[in-house]
Amino acid sequence: MIQNRPRRNRVSATIRGLIRENEVGASDLVYPVFLIDGSNIKSEIASLPGNYRWSLDLLLIELKECIELGINTFILFPVVEESLKNSTADYGFDPNNFYLKAITKIKSEYPDICLISDVAMDPYSSDGHDGLVENGEIVNDKTLLILGKMAIAQAKAGIDIIGPSDMMDGRVGYLREVLDEAGYYNTGIMSYTAKYASAFYGPFRDALDSAPKSGDKKTYQMDPANVNEALIEAELDDYEGADFLMVKPAVHYLDIILNLKQNFHKPIAAYHVSGECAMLIAADQKGWLKLETTVPETLLSIKRAGASVIITYFAKYFMELRKR
Ligand code: PBG
Known about the structure:
Layout: H1 13-18, E1 29-36, E2 42-44, E3 52-54, H2 56-68, E4 73-79, H3 98-109, E5 114-116, E6 132-134, E7 137-139, H4 140-157, E8 161-162, H5 171-181, E9 188-195, H6 202-208, H7 228-240, E10 244-248, H8 254-263, E11 268-272, H9 274-286, H10 291-305, E12 309-312, H11 315-323
Parallel strand pairs: 1-3, 1-4, 1-12, 4-5, 8-9, 9-10, 10-11, 11-12
Antiparallel strand pairs: 2-3, 6-7
Helix pairs in contact: 4-5, 5-7
Bound molecules: ligand PBG.
Ligand PBG binds next to helix 6.
């Protein structure tokens, strides 16, 4: 005789609903969007179909649609013209920077949303690196000074949370200090804590045209083979005052998400990166898999691993699916 039949708890949709342990909802989701200077521009990212570089006028409409679907948090990335890039990423804190002006405009149109920035040199750097390049080396401490100016400019523009994605040592503490000194003690920090030197960032770099001009990012982003480094980075970010600890990429690093969740009390964010999303889109286009089933399962896996914040290019699509 079989005493325990786990299948009894699966016999109907209602019972399956009763025992369901995890659910993804709009309040878990962050939608990354790309902003380009100009007007009336909606240019599709070839390696990430369904995602666009938006000019501000059209982005405001896109954001409104997302807000109506319940999505209230966005990460904004700038697509910067090559002629505005230089080795010290000066445009990143230029008062005329279209990205900074857009932050102010978006927050005045939609004051209740949470807007997250990107703090790193690569969108503005002629070298395509997240830090300052000197004689082929990505120099740490001089980069911090540049990131500090960038963070203050963004805080001044009205950003809710800054997102340092650069992986320089000591940056969370440094940014916290300069923000506080400038009076921005309420501006949060979502740190890219465990950011791996991943092969899955390709479509993002296409979107920004920001691939490194020489070398790779392995002297600052982490080795995919390592777990302990993620714990070290998390300890530092926690201590230095980060408000969120992020793991990036997400799906290939679910073990890291779980590990941080079990060892830290700060909220864990996971970045379901461009290449991870592109794989699913490609399989759907080939007719091999269907987005309407792969996307919910994928986002659920990230949630189940322990992320309370899921950054994904499927945020809008997922909420549209739920409305069907
Ligand atoms: C760079 C940055 C990258 C991403 C977010 N911020 C790319 C990189 O580190 O080269 C990737 C996001 C994605 O692939 O979706 N500061």
